[in-house]
């Protein structure tokens, strides 16, 4: 147990969770949570969903009200990012020139969208505010961000085209079965898809494709993935490899420095991965607080993700990438079903559409390492409840 | 503002002034009341904002829809006849004084 000064770089989902969990676990030393935006720490997922739609405002996004931070003695530094880390002196320097010393440093620097010149990307509340859908909308990339944006734009009455370089949507994150359903729901709403299509240029009022096609575009939004913010770690001499490399306790190559959330590359089973999702940010935020306050539990939660598009709720338990067999349960025609994804006989994960109960049970099954085999799921009338 | 009392499993309680329009879940999260996770942010899709409404409550609460009903069957702490998902109960001045009990676990 250490009660030394903790500095957390990045006030997003992971950084904020680390600060909250440290206090919940009884950490008595100072906690400084440093963000580069001016606003109170807030949730990003609604930026391409309810917030973009106008159903909720900024006040609905903040994690905690301002008084929480003062009452819990968490020093919140906003709009003053860390520009350098001096590991020998155990100190960070902010843009304003101020230095803050630490005993343990937590890097929660997040990631940033891959840019396309001329196109909007959505990461911050300011990004969402400046990319409200109108008229002809082109979404570049048929991943979660592009499709969530397309759904909101379509609901707002826009003419929407989604451009994807791959032959299908959501290739990195969802099975063909689930992705095909999602695309079908969009098409029914009039959204157009161009697969195997490359953008050559985004101009004022139009998007030009590599094959010469010109699409009218009042708003262009790119959702083509993110890059981890590793520069600070790199300049400080920490080990970086498409993410800040950490051990199962989320320690970087310097034992006084941790990395969590989108920016961290960690052990997941036999692989080293980076996960860009709320679950990972929250779980690693709590794990790092546990490790700093003296618990030896390594990070090892079941990953999960979600996406809301129209009234459709897609939830993924586990990581289904690389599966070679998919078994569908429920009723895809009615729009409520789950897809169990296996590698051989091993269950990698479960994708659920409008089946939140399946999702909750699947997470429990995966956490308990229940041996669910494809032929069990394929039996008509299979009920997760009896398996969980 | 409406005063909502969150009673923890150990018997202690947190009293929070919740702005009308926010849900019982949001009220707890904004103030940092421990024991409500709300992992999905409030969409009735994860079942981790489970509460037990105080048995003496006489204040009107919104009816339960199918999603909430389904998730309450798979919460980490057992469902009781006064179980609700706190993200599905918007706070109004009418609910001033409501008491809710937090379950042993949400996961």
UniProtKB/TrEMBL annotation, chain A:
Residue ranges constituting the Reductase C-terminal domain according to the UniProt record: 304-387
Gene Ontology annotations for the cellular component aspect, listed alphabetically: cytoplasm
Start and end residues of each FAD/NAD(P)-binding domain: 6-285
Cofactor(s) required for function per UniProt: FAD
A Pfam family: Pyr_redox_2
Gene3D superfamilies assigned to the protein according to its UniProt record, in alphabetical order: 3.30.390.30, FAD/NAD(P)-binding domain (3.50.50.60)
GO molecular function annotation: dioxygenase activity; oxidoreductase activity, acting on NAD(P)H
Keywords attached to this entry: Dioxygenase, FAD, Flavoprotein, Oxidoreductase
InterPro entries registered for this protein in UniProt: FAD-oxidoreductase/Apoptosis, FAD/NAD-bd_sf, FAD/NAD-binding_dom, FAD/NAD-linked_Rdtase_dimer_sf, Reductase_C
Protein name: 3-phenylpropionate/trans-cinnamate dioxygenase ferredoxin reductase subunit
Organism for this UniProt entry: Lentzea albida
Automatic annotation (TrEMBL), chain B:
UniProt-listed CDD domains: fer2
Residue intervals of the 2Fe-2S ferredoxin-type domain: 2-106
Entry cofactors: [2Fe-2S] cluster
GO molecular function terms listed in the Swiss-Prot or TrEMBL record: 2 iron, 2 sulfur cluster binding; electron transfer activity; metal ion binding
Top-rank taxon, per record: Bacteria
Record keywords: 2Fe-2S, Iron, Iron-sulfur, Metal-binding
GO CC terms in record: cytosol
Gene3D superfamilies: 3.10.20.30
GO biological process, one term: P450-containing electron transport chain
InterPro entries assigned: 2Fe-2S_ferredoxin-like_sf, 2Fe-2S_ferredoxin-type, Adrenodoxin-like, Beta-grasp_dom_sf
PROSITE patterns per record: 2FE2S_FER_2
Family as reported in the entry's similarity comment: Belongs to the adrenodoxin/putidaredoxin family.
Name used for this protein in its record: Ferredoxin, 2Fe-2S
The organism of origin for this protein: Lentzea albida
């Amino acid at each position: 147990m250490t009660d030394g000064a903790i500095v957390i770089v990045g006030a997003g989902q992971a950084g904020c969770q680390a600060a909250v969990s440290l206090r919940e676990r009884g950490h008595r030393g100072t906690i400084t949570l440093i963000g580069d935006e001016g606003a109170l720490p807030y949730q990003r997922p609604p930026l391409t969903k309810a917030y973009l739609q106008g159903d909720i405002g900024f006040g609905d996004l903040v994690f905690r009200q301002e008084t929480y931070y003062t009452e819990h003695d968490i020093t919140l530094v906003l709009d003053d990012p860390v520009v350098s880390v001096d590991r020998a002196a155990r100190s960070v320097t902010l843009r304003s020139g101020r230095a803050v010393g630490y005993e343990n440093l937590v890097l929660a620097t997040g990631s940033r969208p891959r840019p396309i010149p001329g196109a909007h990307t959505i990461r911050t509340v300011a990004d969402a505010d400046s990319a409200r859908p109108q008229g002809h909308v082109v979404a570049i990339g048929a991943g979660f961000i592009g499709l969530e944006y397309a759904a909101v734009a379509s609901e707002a009455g826009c003419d929407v085209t989604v451009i994807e370089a791959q032959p299908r949507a959501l290739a990195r994150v969802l099975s063909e079965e689930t992705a095909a359903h999602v695309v079908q729901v969009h098409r029914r709403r009039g959204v157009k898809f161009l697969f195997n299509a490359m953008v050559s240029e985004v101009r004022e009022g139009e998007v030009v494709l590599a094959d010469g096609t010109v699409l009218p575009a009042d708003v262009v939004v790119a959702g083509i993935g993110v890059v981890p913010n590793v520069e600070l770690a790199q300049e400080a001499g920490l080990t970086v490899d498409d993410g800040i490399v950490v051990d199962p306790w989320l320690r970087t190559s310097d034992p006084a420095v941790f990395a969590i959330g989108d920016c961290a590359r960690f052990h997941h089973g036999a692989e080293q991965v980076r996960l860009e999702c709320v679950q990972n940010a929250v779980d690693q935020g709590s794990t790092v607080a546990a490790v700093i306050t003296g618990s030896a539990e390594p990070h090892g939660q079941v990953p999960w993700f979600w996406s809301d598009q129209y009234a459709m709720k897609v939830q993924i338990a586990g990581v289904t990438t690389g599966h070679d067999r998919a078994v569908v349960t429920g009723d895809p025609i009615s729009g409520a079903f789950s897809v169990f994804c296996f590698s051989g006989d091993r269950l990698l994960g479960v994708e659920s559409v409008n089946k939140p109960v399946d999702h909750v049970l699947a997470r429990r099954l995966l956490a308990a390492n229940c041996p669910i085999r494809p032929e069990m799921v394929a039996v008509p009338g299979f009920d997760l409840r009896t398996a969980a | 503002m409406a005063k909502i009392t969150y009673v923890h499993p150990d018997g202690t309680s947190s009293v929070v002034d919740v702005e009308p329009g926010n849900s019982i879940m949001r009220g707890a999260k904004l103030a940092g009341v421990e024991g409500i996770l709300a992992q999905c942010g409030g969409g009735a899709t994860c079942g981790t904002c489970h509460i037990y409404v105080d048995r003496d409550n006489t204040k009107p609460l919104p009816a339960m829809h199918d999603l909430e009903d389904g998730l309450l069957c798979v919460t980490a702490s057992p469902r009781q006849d006064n179980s609700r998902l706190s993200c599905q109960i918007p706070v109004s001045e009418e609910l001033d004084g409501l008491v809710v009990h937090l379950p042993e676990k949400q996961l």
